Amino acid sequence: MVRKKKWVSSFTVFALAAVLIAGCSSSNKSSESSSPSASATPSATTSASPSDSPSASPSGQPKDGGTLTISTFTDMVSVNPIFINDTASGDLDALIFAKLYDLDRNANLAAEPWSIAAELPQVAADNMTYSIKLKQNAKWSDGQPITANDVKFTFDTIRNPDVGSPAISTLDKIDSITVKDDYTLDIKLKQVYAPFPYSLFISIVPAHVLKDIPPKELKNSKFGVDPAQTVSSGPWKWSEWTQGQHFTIEKNPNYWGEKKPHIDKIIYKIYADQNTEVQALMKGDVQMTEAIPLTQIEAVKKQDGLNVILAPGPQYEYVQFNFKDENFPDKYSPFKGQKTRQAIAYALNRQGMVDNVLKGSGGLMNSPFLPGSWADPGDKAVNYNYDSEKAKQLLAEDGWKPGKDGILVKDGHRFSFELQYNSGNSRREQVSQIIQQNLKDVGIEATPKGMDFATWIDQNITPGKFPAILLGWSLTNPDPDAESIFSSKYFPPAGQNSGWYVNKELDDLWVKGQQTVDKTERAKIYQEIGEKISIDLPYVFLYQYGLPQAVNSSKVKWAEDDRPESSLAYGYLFHAINWWVE
């Protein structure tokens, strides 16, 4: 899984957040878990082209009923949209909650038949006021109407620092929200905030259920973790969760949309790892797997009825450093020296990871902005070629000297740290071993540790309690703004800067980018950010990658316009409301 970038996250075609939910953590960004960049529209590297999409059936007629079973190796954490920071929870959110606005295939904001908004927002000439009209037939799964008060409550709750929402950076530029009537509201900003339209790509929560819970207690409420106490608004509603085994959704009998879902039930089965998922797919125990190991692609493609969809998506992997001393056993972060961080970047054979682990299906990353996106700094960002001698030189310049056992020492502190990643992820398991060996070659002891994703996100990533992590962002927000991840304004819990990184110059540049409306001028600002962040390195940016989606095309059907879209975060569920099963 990845972190969801929460800027409204899990992530998109332009460059979010919402948000590493976690481990590729959700703007939104979401750890491949809620991030911040924009991605270019990808071309397929493995699998059929969109016109040959595995289950396209132009002449086939949708059928109502049946069950779709999907595999995952990561359990969800909470489906409360205010707190989602991981992709497993984001999957469920995408199916059971209606969003205010949705994204079309090209990552444009859209008022779809299943969106709560009736039309695109009206924006004032000064780009400071957004007027929004809601559909008058939308309602919650308990039958209550969805109104402008629900939208206001959702926005006010997320932007309240006492709540601790990872999405706060997307909405804290709001000055006031005026409810004009039950289905109309005006949102006035404190300042011009260019990414704000994508802040409206957001799931709404029910005010009548949550309004009496104190803000600091919301995260611990049963809403989002108990199906019986989670009132939702989407085509399906959550019916069951057996932790570590499965979670299930069923058709929402009170669903209000003009288009109804065809599939009666969707079950997510949780497996120990990705290899076990593939076995379940090939045996027919599941009909879809969202991310199969690259080493298994050819075997899956040879199986009758199974198709693989793979293109570079809005995901990137990284090694994140923690700068807070208390997160280390000896109360000393070894990553504070810029030359030390640059040395680690030179020490890692990133191209070898792309060639040997990703099998050439990814591309190197040198900044938070995906290659080919409008914010991509290109050659302005530093590209750290694999050079262990250069790494050793920089480490020596930063004061590190070999100890008796060959491991570097500085000021009495041994350069040894735990590198955490989510267990069951075959890609990260392989990459962590490469990192361990690469760093050993230059005198650094890194100890990889696989951890249960859901527990890891909740206990380590979200509060920022780890030495270093190998994780990914799923960019659920198409805008390149990544303030929530890299600005010192957004330390945990009210933000996603979980490594406690501080760079005041970059803090100011993120704000400058937000307040610039002209896209060409914004691009120049992000190119400057990309250059500076590639020098200072709060992360070592590794590579962009795709998530190989495997589908049993004899069982799962969709029309051409509803095929999965690899360029979007959660694009493997694109228009799932229109899918059907045989």
From TrEMBL:
Region (Disordered): 26-67
GO molecular function: peptide transmembrane transporter activity
Low complexity biased stretches: 26-59
Organism superkingdom: Bacteria
Keywords, ordered alphabetically: Signal, Transport
GO cellular component: ATP-binding cassette (ABC) transporter complex; periplasmic space
One example of a Gene Ontology biological process annotation: peptide transport
Gene3D superfamilies reported in the protein's UniProt record: Dipeptide-binding Protein, Domain 1, Dipeptide-binding Protein, Domain 3, Periplasmic binding protein-like II
Residue ranges occupied by any Solute-binding protein family domain in the UniProt entry: 117-482
Signal peptide as annotated in the record: 1-30
Entry keyword DNA damage: no
Matching SUPFAM superfamilies: Periplasmic binding protein-like II
PANTHER family hit by this protein: OLIGOPEPTIDE-BINDING PROTEIN APPA (PTHR30290:SF9), PERIPLASMIC BINDING COMPONENT OF ABC TRANSPORTER (PTHR30290)
Protein family (similarity comment): Belongs to the bacterial solute-binding protein 5 family.
Protein name: Peptide ABC transporter substrate-binding protein
Organism: Cohnella candidum
